[in-house]
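anyone seen this seq b4? input:
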Amino acid sequence: MSLSPDPPDPGSGLTKKTTIDKDLKRIVQLEKATSRISQRNLNLGFGLLFLLGVWLFTFFQAGSGANITIISIAAIIGGYMAMNIGANDVANNVGPAVGSKALTLLGALAIAAVFEAAGALIAGGEVVTTISKNIINTEAIADRSVFVWAMMSALLSAAVWVNLATYVGAPVSTTHSIVGGVMGAGIAAAGMASVNWVIMAQIAASWVISPVLGGVIAAIFLGFVKFAVLYREDKISAAKRWVPVLVAIMACAFSVYLVMKGLKRIWKPEAEIVAAIGAIAFIGTYLMVKARVARAAVHLENRRKSVGDLFTVPLICAAALLSFAHGSNDVANAVGPLAAIVSAVGGGEVGAKVTLPLWVLAIGAVGISIGLLLFGPKIIEIVGEKITKLDRVRAFCVALSAAITVIVASTLGLPVSSTHIAVGAVFGVGFLREFITNRRVNIPQPRAVGAAPVLDPNYSGSHRSWTKARQRKLVRRRHLMTIIAAWLITVPSSALLAAVIFWLISAVV
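predicted toks r here
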């Protein structure tokens, strides 16, 4: 009696195909991981090459005196800090534009790198405040050697902290990082009495003021755009009426912002001149945009995306201007302590302000741009895409809020962080979007007294799942908690790190 073979399993082909698909997926994931590691190592190599170039550049610029070693070490640390500023802080300027697809990542990196460097070199100023916002009393550290070690400790601690924040994906204030470093080194060098605690209290207050003010202003503008334009039946007519006004407000805000913050180190006009510049920018932009929108409206569909496309050019301009202003201001965080060290070892007075050599400024400008190009995409992705979904209208509101908040805070004398403002604005538009979405989509429809609840006609499911739908989270809480935690510990962490570094240097020297 012959035995016939078992019939083929009809599911075996499917099982084999599934196994092959899983294997291919693992191979693709492995290739991606390998590519990321290779790219990370390559970027690290370029970063080290830049620091080597800083060392050689310093030798050519600072000469071959007895203190060249100290100056070279300080210059390398300054270049390291500049790269970390570019990797972390610049993302706030271009992240929303990238997240809304108004700019590609490559285009954003190119624009930000050029305008950051231009802002630092053109408007970085000849004189900088070396002890940020007079945090410590310079008379308490009269010994030149102690002052040099304190500034070097502050600079290194701030750079290390910003590097760690970038690694975990938290956009932090580089100004607060250097503030904490200076405070910690000052306490280690001269005791608690050397610190200006009133200034430190104002800085602590800015942890709350900056993000809340930025978020509220961004949410107000987004709410206005939604109800005045996007929720209208005839969106194109509403856009023709309001888009020129909104873009003109942005032009006015950015012109004032640029004069007050971006050019403040080289030009400080009177308030009347600043107001006149803002008015001219508003009127000129309004007339120009009104004509452009009228021409574009002929070909636009009556959709939200069509309205959002009108904000593309303003977003690109905002990213460029924010980068310019940031470069002119925050380059001092990298090169201010370096300039103080160069001045001190050269026999200059240990003071709150020093002259900024051009070669020192160049290290900061180039370092910020290189850090942005090599390591900036990670934070750009988090700010632009990971916290909440941004379209061009939301990104426009974030950029507008950043400029207006800085102007309002500067006028009122409030200490604010541009990083906290921009990220707070992203959270603001995200939470407003979450609130409006949950109320409009998932609220039960009106019903007669005593009747059973009727859910939204577009929604099907149980009452339990409907209740869950009402709780849609359009802002990622994980990023919210990580960023808030990083903000709260930035100053104390960089201060503690600076104190430890100063004590180690003192023990060795």
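The chain has 17 helices and two strands. Residues 445-469 have pLDDT under 50 and may be disordered. kinda curious what u guys think
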